[in-house]
Write a structure and sequence with these properties.
Elements: E1 5-8, E2 13-16, E3 19-21, H1 26-38, H2 44-65, H3 73-86, E4 90-98, E5 101-109, H4 110-118, H5 128-141, E6 149-155, E7 164-170
Length: about 170
């Protein structure tokens, strides 16, 4: 279901299906996250979450509509989990989610592990990007918009938990 990743060595570009992609190391991603968090007067968490929701809504919708026939719910959920893993963000378990919400789990997290490697432990969860990913993906899977779901990380590997936990609710 997922498009292939190709590398054009002549142009030095990576494509995921027809979309250009750029992979960044933890120094870049965590530095960007930290810089956005530290800007006074803005909601850095909200900016990261909402931007990820919009981007993954658009990207995953393109993936699903590229299929010749409708993708069954279980295959769409499997594809979403595969996409997250393929992009190097970790493993997401969507098995407890419905169109109304539920809980998603990650037993590995790029952002938690990267933050620990770069800056060390902190007192707050760090997987804002994953919250947006989940919201955007669910918006596609359940034929809603990218801002239909609110996702809050309630447990995080950063906080000594055994996995990250994301509580999902449908906005009114």
């Amino acid at each position: 279901m997922l498009p292939s990743i190709t590398f054009d060595s002549d142009k030095n570009i990576i494509k995921f299906g027809e979309s250009l992609v750029s992979f960044h190391c933890h120094h870049y991603n965590c530095g960007l996250l930290r810089a956005i968090e530290e800007i006074p007067g803005i909601d850095g968490h909200g900016i990261i979450t909402e931007t990820a929701a919009e981007e993954f809504f658009t990207a995953f919708k393109k993936i699903l509509t590229h299929e010749a026939k409708p993708v069954p719910l279980d295959k769409a959920i499997e594809g979403a989990s595969d996409l997250y893993r393929l992009m190097g963000f970790g493993r997401l378990d969507f098995s407890e989610l419905t169109a109304q919400g539920g809980i998603a789990y990650a037993d590995s997290s790029y952002y938690a592990m990267s933050w620990l490697a770069k800056y060390g432990r902190r007192d707050t969860a760090v997987c804002y990007f994953t919250c947006g990913f989940i919201a955007g993906i669910l918006g596609v899977i359940f034929d809603a918009g990218p801002h239909t779901y609110e996702v809050k990380e309630t447990r995080c590997l950063m906080l000594h938990h055994d996995r990250c936990e994301f509580v999902v609710s449908k906005r009114a």
